[in-house]
Design goal:
- The complex is a heterotrimer.
- By secondary structure, chain A is mostly helical.
- Chain A is 58% helix and 0% strand.
- The relative contact order of chain A is 0.16.
- By secondary structure, chain B is an alpha/beta fold.
- Chain B contains 18 helices and 20 strands.
- Chain B is globular, with a radius of gyration of 26 Å.
- Chain B starts with 8 loop residues before the first strand and ends with a helix.
- The chains are: A mainly alpha, B alpha/beta, C alpha/beta.
- Chains A and C meet through α1 of A and α1 and α6 of C.
């Protein structure tokens, strides 16, 4: 997986509120993205991977709740406020390269791990660049959270056997539906 | 339940999803059975996903050729139950059926349990995992082979032929998985089909779309233009590789309007031409079809009908384009409409359709459908039929050439570009015998008469219909319903009912004298077709004299018409 | 990440998603384009009921059902005609059109020319994967000449055309290109396209994971922001687009044409016309 599309600069954050809005948006996007991947896998009858992505979605949702709790009053109206949905993607855009309807648990978790690592780097960059010490602290906490996610995914990966050759072998050709 | 020749067949359906390889396995099973001397018929159903979706391969095997789905399945083997509900209506099972499933697949869907079929649980995925590179579909094939009495070696040989070239290492795994499956097959007695000592030589395995392409080639087609559309695309793809080997060329057009006009251009230049499409594409071509009629240019349009209207269900069959094929053109524009009567008959009908187009210098719409086009059958090699097709081409240099001369036959010689002295302008504008645009009444009427006469005066011969049997009760149908009806009629006769079968291959122009002769002595006729509004029945009522008692039976897609339902109608029709 | 002053957003992307789960293959670029649509609409703060998404036939054309906006999944190649009629009758709506390279440039080619020329205020997004995916893999007008398929063994031998050049020549007022993998970037282009009056054409390179993975997985390394800023000079744009490598992203042309929107002269009751017949 490559990171050619990720913006290399951390965003400019002018207040703690903006920071939390950003962090929350990241978790919301992550939750949604994993849910979408789970849906795709379900539609394509790969139940095992659908379950893995649902679990990841749940973890991100829990993290989101935790952040909202931490943010408290700093957040406006309970929703990710005042930022643009457009522009170069931050880490909330889960890199979906390597998604395949026959993907194995190992590949699914590797994808998740890659994205958690991106999140770690992202928050570390914010922490390093932050002028506001509160933002620096909160960002460092987020980075630590994401690092724990990486560890957790690694533990899961360790329990898996290596993938067999031919995991993406489907003897049936594509079919047309329209 | 129909007691019939159907009893001498075995119907198996294999279902699964997510890359399990159901379609490939179904093909392997059919190939193995074929190599052991059996005949077979295979259809498929899929979900909307392009890959990884739920799929069902339906295979009917018999000692004699079969070209129709049966009434029920003897065996359903489900690799898993994902979204199987989608196919519920297509899987008739009963207490005499056997369902093989994997306990690892979870709870069996209610609709399967409710059939009352016997259930055999085999841990297929576990067995497959026990072999390095083992696939669940191979285990399944082993089970099926054992149950139906096919030697495992036949399956293994078919696997080798299917994948051996690409992946020799997969063969070892497959062999092991097949054997594991065979040994794990439940100990249930399935009536087995006797295998001949020597498989009959010279049989074919072919789909309706391939047969259409091949028939058209035999008919002399040299140019094809087409636009991809389900379920006709395979005709274009088959012809793309076959046609150049026979002196022809194929062009992928940008849309259907381009397709029909390209083939008219090629035909105007002397090349017998064809396009293949489905309902939506035919609708787009209608205006240009009128041009082919008016300018008297031979072309063949194959419509592989699918469930309509509009985008409809692209992967399901229906006989609902009869109206547009016959009546769709504006103005008075008589032309030819044909319909193949079985998968194998697609070859003859396509070849004959080219012959008719060329001979009568007019467009032919051949109404195939998805149930023929995408089904695969094993049949005896068809008889080689020669039509001695010859387009009436202008050869001499005359005083003055009349392209649209009012000949007695109605067919006038066509000058092919390149012939000196034969120059004319083909036109959709009403024209006189020379081809010059004219608004004169005598020219308009004269040309309308000419084009009608060329169809009326022509002897379409015995191919117009397949007629079989005698009786006061007749079954009248067309196109793809003919095969299930043939089986139903056979069953009825076996039960003592005298019934005649008339399956029309020529829909337009009408053949009143021939149908009258066929209906002599018939007092009651069942008209059976697969559409919602009874298009064929209404067409017959408009153009033919029918006996007093006509019972129309029409049912739209997407479900196939089965012999048993037709048999019930025949029994009903025979009463009173 | 762009930050704008504090204002609670009226809508979030999830507001534009329907409950229908896409059947696109996992890994298909169209999944990302759907998210771009959602993000763009959220950014534009358009109520879902005021947005209509019109499509033709093909994998890309399935998108309306996956959104919570009004949608029309029409027949093959005619989405622009449908959309044109809708927008002229209902200028109050925001009308987006979604198509693929086959639907949009082959059978839809003629309508494409005239939609650009007519310059009705529409946003036309074509998800270009250089193939007919839904019918299992035939070449499209943007497919490379040597790509082997069953229907064109050895390749068509035909040069792909440049949809952006055709759009420019036909009068499109806004021309852009994006890459599906850059979700935020595509969202930005769609926002800009919608905000720009007139016919806005956005070509989004959207890889087909099932049929063209080998050739298209490198697209993410080939796409690059256009080196020169956007232009409003058609001849300059023409030169750039003609020599374009096919992977320049961003807004490539922005014109100043007034959009076509016929308006009624009056709203009288017809009865006043009787006088034309009165003797």
């Amino acid at each position: 997986m490559t990171d050619s599309l990720q913006s290399n600069e951390p965003p400019k954050l002018n207040s703690v509120g903006e920071f939390f809005a950003q962090a929350l948006a990241i978790e919301v996007e992550a939750t949604e993205r994993y849910s979408l991947l789970a849906d795709q896998m379900e539609v394509h009858n790969n139940k095992e991977i659908a379950a893995i992505f649902r679990k990841m979605a749940l973890i991100e949702a829990e993290h989101r709740n935790e952040i909202a709790r931490r943010a408290g009053d700093a957040l406006v109206a309970g929703r990710p406020a005042s930022f643009s949905w457009t522009g170069p993607d931050g880490p909330e855009a889960i890199d979906c390269e390597g998604v395949h309807y026959l993907m194995t648990p190992r590949r699914a978790l590797t994808l998740a791990r890659f994205n958690e690592e991106r999140a770690v780097k992202y928050f570390e960059a914010i922490a390093a660049a932050a002028i506001n010490p509160q933002i620096a602290t909160f960002a460092a906490e987020m980075a630590a959270d994401e690092r724990n996610h990486v560890i957790w995914v690694d533990q899961w990966l360790d329990q898996l056997a290596p993938d067999e050759a031919g995991w993406d072998d489907d003897p049936d050709p594509p079919v047309h539906s329209e | 339940m129909m007691k019939s020749p159907s009893e001498a067949s075995l119907s198996i359906v294999l279902t699964g999803s997510g890359g399990a390889g159901v379609m490939t396995a179904g093909q392997i099973l059919l190939d193995a059975a074929t190599n052991c001397g059996l005949y077979g018929f295979m259809t498929r159903s899929t979900g909307p996903q392009i890959r990884g979706g739920e799929a069902a391969a339906m295979i009917r095997l018999s000692s004699k050729p079969v070209q129709s789905p049966g009434d029920r399945f003897d065996i359903l083997l489900a690799l898993d139950f994902e979204n199987l509900q989608r196919f519920a209506d297509e899987l008739p099972l009963d207490t005499a059926s056997l369902i093989i499933a994997d306990p690892a697949a979870g709870e069996m869907p209610g609709f399967l349990k409710n059939t009352g079929a016997a259930i055999g649980l085999v841990p297929m995925s576990k067995l497959a995992k026990g072999v390095k590179g083992g696939r669940i579909a191979m285990v399944a094939l082993g089970i099926l082979a054992r149950l139906i009495g096919l030697p495992e070696a036949a399956i293994i040989a078919a696997v080798a032929a299917s994948i051996g070239r690409k992946k020799p290492e997969a063969l070892v795994a497959s062999e092991a998985a097949v054997l594991l499956g065979a040994n794990a097959a439940p100990d249930v007695t399935i009536p087995k089909l006797p295998l001949p000592a020597e498989p009959k030589q010279g049989r074919w395995s072919i789909t309706g779309n391939e047969a259409t392409g091949f028939g058209a080639l035999k008919g002399g087609v040299k140019f094809v233009a087409g636009y991809p559309i389900t379920p006709a695309t395979e005709i274009l793809e088959w012809m793309a590789h076959a046609l150049p080997q026979c002196g022809g060329v194929l062009v992928q057009a940008e849309d259907e309007l381009a397709s029909i006009n390209m083939i008219m251009g090629a035909s105007y230049g002397g090349a017998p031409s064809l396009t293949a499409t489905a309902g939506p594409g035919l609708s787009l071509m209608i205006e240009s079809l009128g041009l082919a009629v008016a300018s008297e240019i031979p072309v063949l349009i194959v419509d592989v009908m699918r469930s309509g209207p509009s985008t409809g269900i692209a992967t399901k069959s229906e006989q609902s384009d009869l109206n547009i094929a016959v009546y769709g053109l504006h103005g008075d524009a008589p032309h030819i409409v044909t319909a193949p009567l079985s998968v194998g008959d697609c070859l003859l009908t396509a070849q004959w359709s080219v012959h008719l187009a060329e001979t009568l210098q007019t467009p032919v719409v051949m109404l195939s459908d998805q149930s023929l086009g995408q089904a695969r059958v094993v049949i005896d090699k068809p008889e080689d039929v020669a039509f001695a097709t010859k387009r009436l081409v202008f050869e001499a240099t005359p005083a003055s050439y009349e392209r649209y001369a009012a000949t007695e036959s109605g067919v006038s010689a066509m000058a092919i570009p390149g012939l000196p002295g034969g120059q004319y302008t083909a036109d959709g504008l009403t024209h006189n015998a020379r081809g010059t645009p004219s608004s004169q009444a005598k020219d308009h009427v004269g040309q309308l008469d000419k084009r009608q006469r060329k169809l009326d005066a022509f002897d379409f011969g015995a191919h117009w219909a397949e007629i079989d049997g005698e009786g006061e009760l007749a079954v009248l149908t067309w196109g793809s319903t003919s095969e299930p009806l043939r089986e139903a009629v056979a069953a009825a006769r076996a039960g003592g009912i005298k019934v005649k079968l008339i399956a029309m291959r020529l829909i337009a122009p009408t053949q009143p004298a021939r149908l009258a002769a066929a209906l002599e002595g018939v007092k009651r006729v069942l008209v059976i077709e697969q559409n919602h509004t009874g298009q064929f029945w209404r067409y017959l009522r408009a153009h033919y004299d029918l006996p007093n008692e006509v019972i129309p039976i029409h049912c739209p897609g997407p479900l196939p018409i089965r012999p048993g339902e037709a048999f019930a109608h025949i029994q009903e029709g025979a009463r009173a | 990440m762009n930050m704008i002053p504090n204002a609670a957003k009226a809508f979030i992307p999830a507001d534009y998603k329907s409950a229908v789960k896409p059947v696109w293959c996992p890994g298909c670029g169209d999944h990302s384009v759907l998210i771009s649509f959602q993000r763009a609409l959220a950014e534009l703060a358009l109520p879902p009921e005021q947005v209509a998404i019109i499509s033709g036939i093909g994998c890309s054309s399935r998108i309306p059902a996956y959104t919570n906006c009004y949608g029309f999944h029409g027949v093959h190649g005619r989405s622009l005609a449908l959309a044109s009629g809708l927008k002229v009758a209902r200028p109050d709506l925001t009308v987006l059109v979604a198509s693929g390279d086959g639907d949009g440039f082959s059978i839809g080619g003629n309508h494409f020319l005239h939609a650009c020329r007519r310059n009705i205020d529409l946003t036309y997004v074509v998800m270009d994967n250089r193939i007919y995916g839904m019918t299992k893999g035939q070449p499209s007008p943007t497919t490379e000449p040597d790509w082997d398929t069953a229907i064109a063994p050895g390749g068509t031998g035909l040069s792909p055309f440049h949809p952006l050049v055709i759009a420019l020549a036909s009068g499109a007022n806004f021309i852009a290109r994006g890459f599906s993998g850059d979700i935020g970037g595509c969202a930005k282009l769609i926002v800009d396209a919608v905000r720009t009056p007139g016919f806005s054409f956005v070509q989004i390179l959207s890889p087909c994971v099932t049929f063209r993975d080998d050739q298209q997985k490198s697209w993410k390394n080939l796409v690059h922001a256009a080196i020169v800023p956007e232009t409003d000079d058609p001849s300059r744009a023409a030169r750039r687009l003609m020599t374009d490598d096919g992977f320049n992203t961003g807004v490539l042309y922005r014109g100043h044409r007034k959009p076509y929107q016929p308006i009624p002269l009056a709203h009288s009751a017809p009865s006043h016309l009787e006088s034309e017949f009165a003797i």
